[in-house]
């Protein structure tokens, strides 16, 4: 079976050597249970310490929530996940609020793996290094009981526009796996004088999931700071957009 796999001596989760005597294994990124059985060809795999993999993992049963949300109404809750409430629009329920499922953390794990696979660099151990992530399923603001306002900040459309432009021209770094149903794309940019990477993650076109909760499609878009130098051959964001470029939340369409 074909696979997307980078040979590395470093654990992408902790940044330490894989030759330090601790047991190792290989990690599917994202969890393979997100994908339908017939789409599990050409997986994206990286070696890890076994204990690191366990520490960061969500269970396979929890991973199914993404697959169900994309393909079918949610029929039952995965382990350690509960209903936390319902989002209302004009007095009518439009989306369920779940607790115990951290999609933000799932995205960070994908980013860590993809950065190592594309650029040969590990990212900081802190789990919140990439706090600027817009997910297709919005977070709940516990004060207002509405979708978090970070779903509406002005830089997301600009980042989406950069990514869309460079996807269209092919001037971008990317990973395609799981029969094309997982896609990661990234470009380097300078933000506030420091190097950073813009990225977008697509799983089964999951940008459609935002329609009910926030009234529009929105991709998984984000940015993270980078302390290392940009690798030779890495893609860099264009200095200007051509006139009429679509600054969209959905770079993949």
Shape: globular
The helix/strand series, from N terminus to C terminus, equals EEEHHEEHEEEHEEEHE
**Portion in strands:** 25-35%
* Spatial strand sequence of the major β-sheet: 6-12-11-10-9
Q: What average pLDDT do the residues reach?
A: 79
Instruction: Count every helix, treating DSSP H or I runs of 4 or more residues as helices.
Output: 5
Euclidean distance between termini CA atoms:
29 Å
Largest sheet: number of strands, sense, barrel closure: 5 strands, antiparallel
Stretches where pLDDT is under 50 for at least 5 consecutive residues are none
- Overall SS class: alpha+beta
Strands, count: 12
Helix content: 10-25%
User: Rg to the nearest angstrom?
Assistant: 18 Å
Provide a concise account of the structure shown.
This protein is of the alpha+beta class. Helix content is 22%, strand content 26%. The chain has helices spanning 50-56, 60-71, 103-119, 155-169, 210-214, and strands at residues 4-5, 24-28, 44-49, 82-89, 92-99, 132-134, 140-141, 146-147, 173-177, 182-191, 194-203, 220-225.
């Amino acid at each position: 079976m074909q696979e997307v796999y980078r040979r590395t001596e470093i654990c992408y989760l902790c940044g330490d050597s894989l030759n330090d005597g601790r047991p190792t294994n290989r990690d599917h990124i994202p969890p393979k249970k997100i994908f339908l059985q017939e789409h599990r060809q050409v997986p994206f795999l990286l070696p890890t310490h076994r204990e690191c993999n366990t520490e960061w993992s969500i269970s396979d049963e929890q991973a199914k929530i993404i697959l169900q949300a994309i393909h079918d109404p949610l029929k039952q809750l995965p382990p350690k996940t509960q209903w936390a409430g319902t989002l209302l629009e004009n007095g009518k329920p439009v989306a369920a609020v779940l607790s115990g499922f951290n999609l933000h953390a799932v995205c960070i794990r994908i980013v860590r793996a993809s950065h190592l696979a594309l650029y040969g660099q590990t990212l900081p151990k802190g789990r919140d290094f990439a706090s600027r992530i817009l997910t297709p399923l919005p977070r709940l603001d516990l004060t207002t009981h509405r979708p978090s306002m970070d779903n509406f900040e002005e830089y997301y459309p600009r980042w989406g526009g950069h990514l869309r432009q460079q996807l269209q021209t092919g001037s971008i770094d990317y990973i395609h796996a799981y029969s094309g149903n997982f896609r990661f794309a990234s470009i380097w940019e300078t933000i506030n004088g420091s190097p950073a990477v813009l990225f977008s993650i697509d799983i089964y076109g999951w940008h459609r999931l935002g329609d009910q909760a926030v009234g529009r499609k929105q991709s998984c878009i984000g940015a993270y700071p980078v302390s290392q130098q940009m690798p030779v051959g890495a893609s860099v964001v264009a200095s200007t957009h051509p006139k009429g470029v679509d600054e969209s939340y959905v770079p993949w369409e």
